Amino acid sequence: MAQDAGFNPSWYIQPSVNAFRPDQDFGLTQGGKPLGYGGGLKFGRAISNHWDVQMGYVYGRARESGQRIQQHLLGVDGLYLFSRETFRPFILIGAGVEHDRANLGAGFGGRRDQTAPYVSAGAGVQAVLSDRVTFQADLRNVHGFGGGKEFNDLKSNNYYLTVGLNIALDAPPAPAAAPPVAPAMLQEPTPVAPPPAVAPAPRFEKITLSATRLFGFDNDKLVAPMPKLDEVATLLNENSGISNVVITGYADRLGNDKYNQKLSERRAIAVKDYLVSKGVAADRLTAVGKGEANPVVECNEKNRAALIKCLEPNRRVEVEQITVERRIQ
Question: pTM of this prediction?
Fold first, then answer.
């Protein structure tokens, strides 16, 4: 929501005093319209650039010739402000519940009480005193819908002249300061840096390790020496920013699926354990097995030795994440 300089979205509290003039027909019997007094306490908040909402309690009382009328109001007001500058005229509408009590003396009906809804309308002004304090004054008519028998079915029109202070619970947000602008004649041209040299496009390689060279056939024990694994360990130790390295083991199709799945997992774990023994943090490595999945070659040789030889590329361990970490000039 857009805010101008005077807009503070914080809730505020409003203590107030008022001059109260009850309707002549409200219950006093001596004629005239006596002027009384009262006070109130409300809570309010600016909800847009033009609208405030205020809710709370107001009390007014008046006397005449020993007779007394009291009124309690509990309600909510909507204020439409024509400006958010220092001086802010507004109109208001409101509604709520009133409780009226008249002490007219024994000869005029004694004490009378009623509770009824009311509506109100009026106008006023706010004036900003500081960042958190605003003066408010308004004149309003409160029209009650009592109509009870104790008040002879009369509806009341009472007037309140209220003055109060709106005290914000929080300070308004500070506006963003604009950067200082030097006069054009004093500004020196900013030197323009030459564009950076274009680095050669990197070329990547994927590290795929033949299980035949790392393990014996149908085995998960690493066979020394392992220069390729040593090279991977050196690369990871020199590039500590590489993480989430996935080590994937595969098997060929010889044997049942469950056995080959377990074999591929054990081979991937063996490679991970070797890299950890060379100083690579274990939490940078993940070992998974995929069994016979993703075969590289398809073989149909009848001779078992020839078939085992043909399926050799499918028995492999892949270190996948390294594919994007080494630049080759």
Answer: 0.50
